[in-house]
Amino acid sequence: MKNKAITSRDIDFAKWYTDVVKAAHLATYSNVKGCIVFEPNGYAIWEKMQQVLDQKFKETGHQNVYMPLLIPENLLQKESDLIEGFAPEVAWVTMGGQKQLEEKMCIRPTSETLFSDYYSSVVTSYRDLPMKYNQWCSVLRWEKETRPFLRSREFLWQEGHTIHETQEEAEEETKTMLEVYRDLFENYLAIPVITGKKTEKEKFAGAEYTLTVEALMYNGISLQSATSHYFGQKFSRAYNISFLNRQNEQAYVYQTSWGASTRMIGALIMVHSDDNGLVLPPKIAPKQVILIPIGDSEDVKRKTDEIYQKLKNANISVTIDESEKSPGFKFAEAEVNGIPVRIEIGARDLKEKKITFARRDTREKMVEDETIDVVSYVKQLLEDIQNNLYHRAYERMQSLTYTCHDLEEVCNIMNTRPGFVKAMWCGDTECEMKMKEINGTKSRCILEKEKPIDDTCIVCGKKAKHLVVWGIQY
Amino acid sequence: MKNKAITSRDIDFAKWYTDVVKAAHLATYSNVKGCIVFEPNGYAIWEKMQQVLDQKFKETGHQNVYMPLLIPENLLQKESDLIEGFAPEVAWVTMGGQKQLEEKMCIRPTSETLFSDYYSSVVTSYRDLPMKYNQWCSVLRWEKETRPFLRSREFLWQEGHTIHETQEEAEEETKTMLEVYRDLFENYLAIPVITGKKTEKEKFAGAEYTLTVEALMYNGISLQSATSHYFGQKFSRAYNISFLNRQNEQAYVYQTSWGASTRMIGALIMVHSDDNGLVLPPKIAPKQVILIPIGDSEDVKRKTDEIYQKLKNANISVTIDESEKSPGFKFAEAEVNGIPVRIEIGARDLKEKKITFARRDTREKMVEDETIDVVSYVKQLLEDIQNNLYHRAYERMQSLTYTCHDLEEVCNIMNTRPGFVKAMWCGDTECEMKMKEINGTKSRCILEKEKPIDDTCIVCGKKAKHLVVWGIQY
Question: Residues 364 to 393 of A: which have CB under 8 A from any B CB?
Answer without folding.
Answer: none
